[in-house]
Amino acid sequence: MFKTGVLLSAICFVGVLGQLNDVFEWKELNFVWPSEEAKSNALKNGDYIPDNNLPLGLARWKDKLFVTVPRWKAGVAASLNYIPLNTTEKSPTLIPYPDWKANQIPKKGETPADNQIISVFRVNIDACDRLWVMETGLADILGNPQQIIPSSIAIFDLNTDKLLRRYNFSESDIKGEDSFFANVIVDVTKDTCDNAFAYVPDLGGYGIVVYSFAEDKSWRVKHNYFHFDPLKGDMTVGGVNFQWTDGVFGIALGPINENGFRTAYFHALASCNEFSVSTQVLRNESLATDSHSFELYKLEGHKGDKGQASSSSFDEKTNVLFMTQLQRDGIACWNPRTRLEANNFVLVAQDHEKLIFTNDISIDAERNIWILSDRMPVFIYRQLDPNEINYRILKMSVDEAIKGTACEA
């Protein structure tokens, strides 16, 4: 019986691999510089160290594919960038967004600009053509960490590239030095642009910060389900073994239900469980912060012993949730109409070379799944080989990915 299951999985695996489309790949990242002189000077003074530029998050808007490059180490040229999708280059240079100046660390004594970008992990594009940027404000994270500007949400109008608003987190949103905000999920429709909500997971402080655009205020939510699983923090990816304690990280929103709210599916990175809660809870400050709301959260199920995931994204048309699979070098799906268990949690893409550490996924308006893999454990704990392809962006169709699987249920 076991051998039969393995054989069937292998057959499905071969069919799925043919659907992956290699879009971009890099050995090292390069950028569109103001001039060759500026690049040369940056290389000389250490403002640009190619080895230290690792892509991490992505999101598509029209003909732009946004790619983030957090300042894990010194020498990151620009943290928020985009690639024109009409390029014919396989390893294109990144264009800083909203411009080059905004991505430069202010010199001593300089006042940060209103649209300042320091270090971004993930971004989110909403139905109102706005780019939501989770700005950590933290530079040289793995070296000599410096909080250049406060942790904040920066919101840009993609049609004008102008900053609409920046919201600095309050002291009550932050849990001392433990807090680390690396993701932002936006709850809005094109008819409710002025009533948007953002959900920002705190992977180090084990909480979620909810931001109301209409009220321009935020509140912190805590729950036991936001914590990591101590039995699932030991992982091996790309031949590197490491132990992480990252809590709530991936959040994906289901379709609007009959009461006008959505289901928020979430998980800690160091966990193989998936949980959910109605956004009706999160969006109500008094309810969200009341300890009596504990039982309004639900355990959806278990994704398997190596089911740790970073990012997740929901396709409303098919009602399917997609997740990265860090230890499986792949992407998996689950249809919430079925119980979350091994038989219904399907690996739809796997490649032990191209998908080493699938750091982020994002579904665009045309229902393509964009995938970014970056070998991050090697980057952090060892050293990437600049002669090898280290970073990749791939994509696949939602419908083709789930065809013939339990996710079509």
TrEMBL record:
Belongs to the major royal jelly protein family. It is found in: Secreted. GO terms for cellular component: extracellular region. Keywords: Secreted, Signal. Residues 1-18 form the signal peptide. This is Yellow-c. Gene3D superfamilies: TolB, C-terminal domain. PANTHER family: PROTEIN YELLOW-RELATED, RH54244P. The keyword Signal applies. Pfam families: MRJP.
